[in-house]
Amino acid sequence: MPLTIDQSKDALKTFNAKLDKILGYSFFKHEKILLAVQHDFTTRIATIDSDYPSDEAIDAVILNLRFFILEKEYCSYHQLQAVYATVQPPPELQNEFDAAYAQWTAWNQTPSGILDTTNDRLFEIIFYGERAHRNCRENYEVYDSWKKNVLLFEAAMVKFCGKIDELVGILKVIYMVNQKILS
Length: 183
Prior knowledge:
By secondary structure, the chain is mostly helical.
């Protein structure tokens, strides 16, 4: 059943409210995200130094970021085009949205830098491997295998944190278009 204009505008308001909430979290106050590995060839011991937001900060962001990812949420990637089709913004705003949405689509399919995963797949593994849900065996088996390899897991979390920042940059553009439509 198609959305009404009011429901669609509510979806845009929800989108913006969730992004506002995310941007207020300590995750975005973390100064640096890094991973350094040093290997002593004499002792054959490797040390890993990683710096990224705390588990609590990551989980707080994930709990709200999932609104942009879950298929059934009206403010998600999967529903947003239908919302805009219902709202029918002026052509210049539609073009701004279309450009940001195309960037989001391309971002989803871009290699994440962790094994052979795309950004979209990296998010699935981390979100549904444990962080937000643990209801998909395929995702939690991959997540669990990554946790057993400390270097891989730390690299995945550092990449994931960087990818959150990239995605939020795209979401900010849509946020601004939503603001113009709602004003």
